[in-house]
Amino acid sequence: MKILVPVKRAVDYNVKVRVRPDQTGVDLVNVKMSMNPFCEIAVEEAIRLKEKGAASEIVVVSIGPAQAQETIRTALAMGADRGVHVTADVTVEPLAVAKILKGVAEAESPELIILGKQAIDDDSNATGQMLAALMGLPQATFASAIEKTEAGVNVTREIDGGLQTLSMPTPAIITTDLRLNEPRYASLPNIMKAKRKPIDARTPDEFGVDITPRLDVLKVTAPPKRDAGVKVDSVADLVGRLKNEAGVL
Amino acid sequence: MAALVIAEHDNVTLNDATRAAVTAAIQIGGEVHVLVGGENCASVVQQAAKLTGVSKVLHADAPVLNRKLAEAMETVVLSVADGYQALLTPATASGKNFMPRIAARLDVMQISDITAVESADVFVRPIYAGNAMMTVKSSDAKKVITVRPTTFAKTGDEGAAGIETIDVPAPAVAARFVSEELSRSDRPELASAKIVISGGRGMGNSENFALLERVADKLNAAVGASRAAVDAGFAPNDYQVGQTGKVVAPELYIAVGISGAIQHLAGMKDSRIIVAINKDADAPIFSVADYGLVTDLFQAIPEFETELDKIGY
């Protein structure tokens, strides 16, 4: 079984971003970038399926500027087999990403495509579902457990109020939730080995995809700031204020 | 032109998040219709018909819609999508699951998790865990939108909409429902509770969460948790409040032993009143708290319970 894992280069999880004064976006100059955490979980899950003997090859694809190759190398160092880099120097919206990924998937014919459920930069939570619809495939979003079966996969999903398990034939699309696994760190020998793994260079045009955004960003602003209130001295003071001042008890 | 809101429900009760999506649809302008897709969901249809501002309810009833699996929802929504300029659904786990499929099939870029409607084609949505707000103008002919339920007022029950039963095309659904494991609780749902009390890593272990549960039962509150507490196994996954968990905006949010990582703040900073109880006076949670109490939570929580008793809880 071949697994395709799309990954996104995004701002590092620990960075607190700031809005640019001219309201055109957030300031990403000299900001640490990493693989989107949910994508890292997707790569890890693919590797675990391979280690269990359920998968034979893991192909990682990233759409973005030249630096997206570093993100692909990170996945290769974790244990993926080869990469595809689709060069794009502008922001590509989830719909166009899904269209490009469809092109990559048609060329690669994977049995499973595992993606992160959302990127922590634009927080859209849409690419996996869009890809599934464009390819006419079943989907299991927000996965917390994946089990390969003879005929396909069983996936446990995080839903409001608990967990849901679905069974589906492959090919299928899975998006990862936070607690599917804990991604490994790449070892130094594997980082060295990853440098020799092949990365195929492609462009959106080769897949016939127009990446012109559909959403015109008019402005990006800081959220309304919430000011710190008062420190209270005791629990009795707190309960008194909640009852008399705030009126919430 | 009209807007269609796809209702969130469990085949018996209309979920309140739907009311917020209806409010967003009213702000876009034009007629507002609601689609109730499910199995034996007539009671939900009756509830939806009473929603203020809704002129028509479409009722799609079929076994294949029982669990609202994404492929089935895609087929039924697409079968009626032609007549609408906007399709909306609340950004719940269910809405987030099926809505992007519909957007992709319509060749539309979805506008996820909107927090404000500026005009029929301009919307505000949070990015970077709510550390920035992006105002976007959609150039797509049809808008496909998920609505953050906590930022829109919930429409009332003064409507009297007509009901139309629609045929459900037989969708080819490859995914099969196996089982569901829902945490059973008499406490209100986290996303819609008026009071939420959440615990963080400072709770120490899962047994200590019982302290919070006792307070929650007194206040008829929901119990939440920070990512750190869930990761440590103190609380179930669906308790998580934050960027990648649930977004809540109750009247009162009590954060206990939570330091206040930006990802957690993203999920609760729109609460009306925020209380923080933490022994670390420098914890970032205090920067958003209306009332902060620097103390050991294991002393404070039992005392809180006693004080509540005194005022009649």
List keywords for this structure.
heterodimer, A: alpha/beta, nine-stranded mixed beta sheet, two-stranded antiparallel ribbon, 6 helices, 27% helix, B: 313 residues, alpha/beta, Rossmann fold, five-stranded parallel beta sheet
Task: Provide an overview of this structure.
The complex is a heterodimer of chains A (249) and B (313). With 249 residues, chain A is of the alpha/beta class. Chain A contains six helices and 13 strands. In chain A, a hairpin with a 3-residue loop joins strand 7 and strand 8. Chain A is globular. Chain B has 313 residues and is an alpha/beta fold. Chain B has two domains: 2-165, 3-Layer(aba) Sandwich (Rossmann fold); 190-310, TPP-binding domain (Rossmann fold, 3-Layer(aba) Sandwich), CATH 3.40.50. Chain B has eight helices and 16 strands. In chain B, the strands form three sheets. Chain B has a seven-stranded parallel beta sheet, with helices on both faces. Chain B has a five-stranded parallel beta sheet with strand order 13-12-14-15-16. In chain B, helix 2 (42-49) links the parallel strand 2 and strand 3 (56-61). In chain B, helix 3 (70-80) crosses helix 4 (93-105) and helix 5 (209-219) runs parallel beside helix 8 (297-310). Chain B starts with a strand and ends with a helix. The mean pLDDT of chain B is 96. Classes of the chains: A alpha/beta (249), B alpha/beta (313). The interface between A and B is large, with 82 and 93 residues.
The overall strand count of chain A is 13
Provide the number of structural domains of chain B.
Answer: 2
Q: Strand order of the main beta sheet of chain B, please?
A: 5-9-4-1-2-3-10
Q: Between the first and last Cα atoms of chain A, what is the distance in angstroms?
A: 58 Å
Q: What is the CATH topology assignment of the largest domain in chain B?
A: Rossmann fold
Distance between the termini of chain B: 50 Å
Gyration radius of chain A (Cα, Å) is 21 Å
Strand line-up in the sheet with most strands of chain A = 9-8-7-10-6-1-4-5-11
Low-pLDDT segments, ≥5 res of chain B: none
General form of chain A? globular
Share of residues in helices of chain A: 25-40%
| Biggest sheet details of chain B | 7 strands, parallel
Q: Let me know the CATH homologous superfamily of the largest domain in chain B.
A: HUPs
Q: What share of the residues of chain B does DSSP label as strand, in percent? A: 25-35%
Helix fraction of chain B by DSSP (H/I, runs of at least 4): 10-25%
Rounded to the nearest angstrom, the radius of gyration of chain B is: 21 Å
Q: Supply the CATH class of the largest domain in chain B.
A: Alpha Beta
